[in-house]
Design a protein that fits this description.
With 732 residues, this protein is α/β, with parallel strands linked by helices. It has five domains: 203 residues, P-loop containing nucleotide triphosphate hydrolases (Rossmann fold), CATH 3.40.50; 178 residues, Rossmann fold; 105 residues, Winged helix-like DNA-binding domain superfamily/Winged helix DNA-binding domain (Arc Repressor Mutant, subunit A, Orthogonal Bundle); 97 residues, HRDC domain (DNA polymerase, domain 1, Orthogonal Bundle), CATH 1.10.150.80; 100 residues, ATP-dependent DNA helicase RecQ (Arc Repressor Mutant, subunit A), CATH 1.10.10.1390. It has 35 helices and 17 strands. The strands form four sheets. The protein has a seven-stranded parallel sheet with strand order 3-4-2-5-6-1-7, with helices on both faces. Strands 8-13-12-9-11-10 form a six-stranded parallel sheet, with helices on both faces. It has a two-stranded antiparallel sheet with strand order 14-17. Helix 23 packs across helix 25.
Length: 732
């Protein structure tokens, strides 16, 4: 149905009349014309590009009410408040969702019936309610706008099953043009959206995904808490968002930021809506500088001057990462996007997927592989991101990402690229990157055996290089369009047109070596205990502290590690604490240990600092949350009440391994815990005595690996850890 009555309307005049703007951004005007002409319209526009105006202006111009389907209650409220700000009629825009009471719902419906409401925002859950379907059948609908349309696709970063039902509900309510809008969609996601909504013939408008004002950086996850605090303090007064993997992590990070004098609040789906709204408003009104939020929960915050977006944990997909970084610098000003990467985060995310349907696990795994590839790649971040969304970035140097500013070495990759391409062809383009790499590296797994690929001449041909190296070859082949990923069967590798050209006439190919992130201990314990070492210890002071520890341990007839572990001494040699209170801020040093053993250590450090006129980094001493906060209190009290450790782990919804790590942290910092009641039920007396004697008389350090090697195979790791906890606790 063509709406010719709108054909000659002056859109510039309508824009000025309703919103006071002088001109459109990008392709907004063409999109609005498409909607006014009654066409189905697909809009792919990055965050901050002005998507909302693409449906708001035609909704104000056209007869009837526009139904806007949006997943976020907070965002609906913001949008409605914003529209009402441009109009004298409060009824011009409403939302219909679970936050309204009965009386408010009656008012909304009456305003719609009276023709006052031009925009009605509904959650997909509300749209499917029978009473709402019957109500919407009675009104004139100008068009449907589906915001955050990536939620329709299982490949989208925020898939919601209820979004898959939108097409059938729209058909039941009554046909009208559809405009779908999203800030992130790969070619696969776009195809999914259009198929699901039956709009394959829609007018498609794609804006560039390039956000030139954003700076992208990946950092190894070493002392992440300290790094974050240091960064925020160096950017005082600037607004920022920190994304974390879990609600608990959100609360812990927000708490430690507050303890260290940073104005920060938490924001996640587990909080009551009043607190969440209050925290959001404080951020918008600049009463706080930093919001710490879960990756999984869309924030719906339209704040133009967010100056930094930090991913404390790596997100589940590259789309999610792009969407979240897109909240930075929406006013085209500074936007620093820093993500901390550790493969442990990836393993956690893989663990979360267990128990889900196999197809969902497969999709999740593929999306995770993309984020790993992005993190480890040494290619321009901007080029990699844009390539993922089907857009070519022609520049060789963006000048605004860590890889461009600090390039890795290049190497000649012609022959290795040929090898990969030829193998993909030989296997008839029916396998994923993982399998190609396994063949080249000579990895015998179930697939290589079942397909008899270990008989191929290429099997093991590249085992002198790591799997990471061959993955880098494939990734750079994708960026060069030598290789394509099959859309329908996501992950299958095919040769692109440029790949065939290269095979026909190979030429020199200078490729980048990937980053190699060495696995390191994350400083998660800092969030509930003490600060981690900065890794820049004063070696001379460290040696002196070790000598002092040795002499004191001899006097007390104790193994040296019982006093302070090496990590504690390293932190002392970094922070230079000269009082007992300052010493308590060092890793693994609780109040008990500081008072019991600390005096001679701070005196030595004090003399050392004075003699060498050392400027102490007091600004970098991170204040901790303390052991007797949150879950620590629960653990200590539960042990005091002699609750079995497996029951405590179950109550905290964590594995036994995690609980033991938490107990070790409590004990190592100087708190006494008596777990004899549990040991007597779970460890034989003979074993218990032998392990105890090892730590008391033979151990040179507290290392679990050394203990397991020394004691032999008759002991489980859990038994050794339990007795080590008992031993350490007795000398606190």
């Amino acid at each position: 149905m063509a709406h010719n009555k709108y054909a000659n309307i002056s859109l510039a005049g309508e824009l000025k009349r309703y919103f006071g703007f002088e001109s459109f951004k990008g392709n907004q005007e063409e999109i609005i014309r498409s909607v006014l002409n009654g066409n189905d319209t697909f809009v792919l526009m990055p965050t901050g590009g002005g998507k909302s105006l693409c449906y708001q202006l035609p909704a104000l111009i056209m007869d009837g009410t526009c139904i806007i389907i949006s997943p976020l209650i907070a965002l609906m409220k913001n949008q409605v408040d914003s529209i009402r700000g441009f109009s004298i009629d409060e009824g011009i825009a409403h939302f219909l969702n679970s936050s309204l009471n009965r009386a408010q719902i009656i008012t909304v419906k009456q305003n719609v019936k009276d023709g006052r409401t031009k925009m009605l925002y509904v959650a997909p859950e509300s749209l499917t309610k029978e009473e709402n379907v019957q109500f919407l059948k009675q009104i004139k609908i100008s068009f449907y706008a589906i915001d955050e349309a990536h939620c329709i696709s299982e490949w989208g970063h925020d898939f919601r099953p209820e979004y898959r039902r939108i097409r059938s509900i729209i058909s039941e309510i009554g046909a009208a043009p559809i405009i779908t809008l999203t800030a992130t969609a790969t070619p696969k996601v776009q195809s999914d959206i259009q198929k699901n909504l039956g709009m394959l013939n829609a007018n498609v408008f794609k804006s560039s995904f390039n956000r030139p004002n954003l700076y992208y950086e990946i950092r190894p996850k070493i002392n992440a808490v300290k790094e974050v605090i240091k960064y925020i303090k160096n950017n005082e007064g600037k607004s920022g968002i920190i994304y974390c993997l879990s609600r608990k992590r959100v609360e812990d990070v927000a708490e430690i930021l507050k303890i260290n004098g940073i104005k920060a609040l938490a924001y996640h789906a587990g909080m009551d809506s009043a607190t969440r709204s209050e925290n959001q408003d404080k951020f918008l009104m600049e009463e706080v500088d930093v919001i710490v939020a879960t990756i999984a929960f869309g924030m719906g915050i339209d704040k133009p001057d967010v100056r930094f977006v930090i991913h404390f944990d790596i997100p589940k997909s590259l789309e999610g990462y792009y969407q979240e970084t897109g909240r930075g610098g929406r006013d085209m000003g500074e936007g620093q996007c820093i993500a901390f990467y550790s493969y442990k985060d990836v393993q956690r995310l893989e663990k979360f997927m267990q128990g889900k349907p196999v197809s969902e696990q497969e999709i999740g795994k593929q999306l995770l592989l993309e984020i790993v590839a992005y993190a480890e790649s040494a290619v321009c971040r901007r080029k990699t991101l844009l390539n993922y969304f089907g857009e070519d970035y022609e520049e060789t140097y963006c000048g605004s990402c860590d890889n461009c500013l600090h390039p890795k070495e290049k190497f000649e990759g012609k022959e290795d690229m040929q090898l990969v391409l030829e193998l993909i062809l030989k296997l008839k383009e029916k396998f994923k990157a993982e399998h190609i790499v396994n063949i080249i590296c000579g990895e015998r797994d179930s697939m290589t055996k079942s397909y008899k690929h270990e008989e191929l001449e290429e099997f093991g041909i590249g085992k002198d290089q790591s799997p990471q190296y061959w993955n880098a070859i494939i990734r750079q082949g994708l960026i060069l369009h030598f290789i394509d990923k099959e859309i329908e069967n996501y992950g299958l590798l095919r040769i692109g047109a440029k790949g065939y050209e290269f095979l026909k006439k190979p030429y020199s190919l200078m490729l980048m070596r990937d980053h190699e992130y060495t696995e390191c201990d994350e400083d998660d314990d800092l969030l509930s205990t003490r600060n981690g070492s900065s890794g820049a210890a004063d070696e001379e002071l460290f040696a002196m502290l070790k000598d002092l520890r040795k002499s004191i341990s001899k006097k007390l007839n104790l193994p040296p590690f019982v006093l302070f572990q090496d990590t504690s001494l390293e932190d002392m040699a970094t922070q230079y604490p000269i009082t007992i209170d300052e010493l308590k801020n060092c890793q693994g040093v609780g109040e008990g240990k500081a008072k019991k053993y600390g005096t001679e250590f701070v005196e030595l450090i004090g003399r050392y600092v004075e003699e060498r006129e050392i400027e102490r980094p007091l600004d970098m001493i991170v204040k901790s949350m303390g052991y007797k906060s949150g879950s620590k209190v629960f653990v200590i009290q539960s042990i005091d009440h002699k609750l079995p450790l497996d029951e405590i782990a179950h109550a905290k919804n964590i594995e036994m391994d995690e609980l033991l790590t938490e107990i070790e942290a409590i004990v190592n910092s100087g708190t006494k815990l008596n777990i004899d009641y549990y040991i007597s039920y779970t460890v034989d007396d003979d074993k218990s005595e032998e392990i105890y004697n090892y730590f008391r008389n033979e151990a040179a350090n507290e290392s679990l690996d050394d203990a397991m090697n020394e004691l032999g195979g008759d002991y489980t790791e859990e038994e050794v850890r339990l007795i080590r906890i008992k031993f350490m606790s007795e000398f606190n």
